Amino acid sequence: MLGAGLALALCALQLCPAALGGSYPQLLVERSGSRRLSKVGGFAWENCGDRRDPVVLQSLSVAPDPISIPGSLRVSAAVSSGKAMASPLKVVLVVEKALGDLWIQLPCIDQLGSCTYNDVCTILDNLIPPGTTCPEPLLTYGIPCHCPFKAGSYSLPASDFILPDVELPAWMTNGNYRVRAAVSNGGEELACIKVAFSLQSQ
Questions:
Q1: Cα(120)–Cα(162) distance, rounded to whole angstroms?
Q2: Is the pTM for the entire model greater than 0.85?
């Protein structure tokens, strides 16, 4: 489950982009061109499920703050799971951007933003083909990268990752964002995590 969580975190950090939300007026955005993501900062997280959720993020540390891109990133995390998790694992992302004192929910555009992924197990299989060894540092610490995920505790000690240049759509503006990710199977919520951060692009 930690492997899936890390994948979701990366999806969230490549985030979202502006447009509309709820009853608020639609925001006009420019879709052509691209920007280079330069910094991600102000990272914070919390569990948002009720006490019945079997999967809980126990700890998550991301450094430095802000994160320079390209650059290096150090991550440590721990997850406990009271239940085995098998395909299909549905993930619903709700992405919001601060607009003054309001938080505007962003739509799903080109698989970025407030999107629903019907089975992240399939996404993981596409990223890391079945039968392929899990990449480091997951392999060293015995963290699975494919479904099903057995019940138990998973821990990633402080590990360094190299971040390459990241191109963002031109309509993804600088600002403060928050993301809610809910994981479910067969209608049963298994985990819920909220993260908040700021983006700066050039």
A1: 23
A2: no
